[in-house]
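Run: sequence + PBG -> complex structure.
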Amino acid sequence: MPKSKLTTGSFPHVRMRRNRTDSWVRRMVAENTLTTNDLIWPLFVIEGIGVHDPIESMPGVDRLSVDLIVEAAVQARDLGIPAIAVFPNTNPDVKTPCAKEALNTNNLVCTAVRAIKEKLGNEIGVICDVALDPYNSDGHDGLVDDGEILNDETVEMLCKQSVVQAQAGCDIIAPSDMMDGRIRAIREALDAAGFQNVKILSYAAKYASAFYGPFRDAVGSGGALKGDKRTYQMNPANTDESLREVAGDIAEGADMVMVKPGLAYLDIVRRIKEEFVMPTFAYQVSGEYAMIQAAVQNGWLDGDAVMMESLMAFKRAGADGILTYFAPRAAKILNEK
Ligand code: PBG
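>> structure
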């Protein structure tokens, strides 16, 4: 049913184009705004010094060694980006079925976080993913036993991984694993270790998506992955189920929630924001970035315009912020305005 009571008149008295005649009036009646405060920049860290390692399926994104990650963090701070998310490209030699590298206090992520925090302190927020896929020789987010992804055993590992990352200086723990019950367990583990102020951003509604392909290249988990993630990540056919996932994570202690992927799931962002009025984030994932960049490289799309339009779409859907590989480029444009 149309909400006809909202209509106050009709053509020719009403001319919708009147409010679009000039830039000043378009800005005056704009319903949504995008600012640098809405951007979270995901970064990939790799071993070495002075290393820029291009990711083929993500044109314009490099894996960076720790020294250059620190520079990127400084750039983010200078651009007014409030937080970065750090993902490791772990040396395949240290990947094992028990993913024990996840608990190494000197692993790549922890080393990077310590270096960033040493340089910038609280001038930028640092987010760390919690999941075993960068460390697991099977490429799965959890421990695997005879093809089954173990839930409770994985959660125990995730709690330890969270504490290790918090000790390194991580501000926001972001469980992306989709195991059941992990938010409560991680909250309790963080609190018991004295990290009451470390926040939890739950990847609450994370779908089993083909849009993660380039990310798996970036962290080097794709080749290792045996099977798929459909026994733990959500079925793209579902929307009611995302509300149950989010309700559960909020009850268990999540401070913020996330929907992932982004553009193809904006209906989920809208439903979750309306239902729970929680800080709600969305991840414009690697495959979305790759699609836009591929078209731009072919000269088929105007890159900056499509980037800004896609980011505004997240705001319109109700997102409080967007994890996006475009963060620095978008921030530059926003700062020039
Ligand atoms: C790993 C993780 C993934 C992403 C973020 N954390 C991939 C996956 O679940 O396979 C995807 C991000 C992206 O595609 O940009 N738990």
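>> summary
The domain at 33-336 is CATH 3.20.20.70 (TIM Barrel). The two ends are 40 Å apart (CA to CA).
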